[in-house]
Amino acid sequence: MSDSAYEPYYVPHSSKLPIFASIGIFLTVFGIAHILNDLTAGADGGWGVAILLMGGLVMGLTLFCWFAKVIEENHAKLYSDQMNRTYVWGMSWFIFSEVMFFAAFFGALFYIRVFVVDWLGGVGDRGPSGALWPAYEPSWPMLNTPDPERFIPAEGVISPYGLPLVNTLLLVTSSFTVSFAHHAIKEADRKKIMRWLSVTVLLGVIFLFVQGYEYVHAYKDLGLTLGSGIFGTTFFMLTGFHGAHVTLGTFMLLVMLGRAIKGHFEADDCFGFEAAAWYWHFVDVVWLALFIFVYVLGS
């Protein structure tokens, strides 16, 4: 077979960036573990916060340098079609792993609501729950916990037709605006790209502020906290992890906005933007599932 049958494949030089990424991940996880241990022990978790912030800083700087290098290599036309396909598959598998991540939490919510709540109320033959809490009436949302001395009962739940509905409208709108920005890339209209990306980033930031206000309302006015039993735990785990993903997605789109300002994207070379858009659409779909199963059906 002739050499022309082979496609050139760029192999980058050795790099220290994976080492720094490993250090950043270690510090981040160690900091979170330190915080959780301090919370369990009743301490303030000061060192854990400092270690967590240090890990986030190291990871952020590492990713900045790493992605800057990838962008530089792409602009130098070092990547072949096969290399570009590896990026597509890499992002596809990453989003699939995120789907499985949230599927585990939604699965836990389903298991709790359908099986565990009834078992705690003595329904069926799953252990001595009826003898332990004979006065407990199984219901969802579980505001009155079987053991109120251990888990502080919540006074209410967040109405789905207030702030959650506002956030739903914000994210659904942002899915359209990021799609408009994608079409603008195909049309080579740089001003339109920047306009629609700016709107998308703004919607993401507003979403995060609304969710922060919602958390304050839940804690102060409703008594709904992580210590409110299994309802509070599932609520904050699902919405909190989703908020973290919105934060990451907003940051990704902000980077894409910076690249658009520099004129990086072309109609046939914009996978960096497309990957961020895929992630943002995934975040939007997860929120719709949260709105239905956590807020509407959970209220």
Care to describe what's here?
The chain has 299 residues and is an all-alpha fold. It folds into two domains: 7-79, Helix Hairpins, CATH 1.10.287; 81-296, Four Helix Bundle (Hemerythrin (Met), subunit A) (Up-down Bundle), CATH 1.20.120.80. It is built from eight helices and no strands. It has helices at 17-41, 46-75, 81-120, 129-132, 163-186, 190-220, 230-261, 271-296. Helix 1 (17-41) runs antiparallel to helix 2 (46-75). 24% of the residues are buried.
Strand content: under 5%
Question: If you compute it from the alpha carbons, what radius of gyration comes out, rounded to the nearest whole angstrom?
Answer: 23 Å
CATH-derived architecture of the largest domain: Up-down Bundle
CATH superfamily of the largest domain: Cytochrome c oxidase, subunit III, four-helix bundle
| N- and C-termini, Cα separation | 66 Å
- Are there runs of 5+ residues with pLDDT below 50, and where? none
User: Structural class per helix/strand content?
Assistant: mainly alpha
> What's the CATH first level of the largest domain?
Mainly Alpha
Helix content: over 70%
Estimate the mean pLDDT confidence.
Answer: 85
Tally of structural domains: 2
How many runs of DSSP E, i.e. beta strands? Answer: 0
Order of helices and strands: HHHHHHHH
Question: Within the CATH hierarchy, at the fold level, what is the topology of the largest domain?
Answer: Four Helix Bundle (Hemerythrin (Met), subunit A)
Query: Count the helices. How many?
Result: 8
Largest sheet: none
Global outline? globular
Write the SSE topology:
Blueprint: H1 17-41, H2 46-75, H3 81-120, H4 129-132, H5 163-186, H6 190-220, H7 230-261, H8 271-296
Helix pairs in contact: 1-2, 3-7, 3-8, 5-6, 5-8, 6-7, 7-8
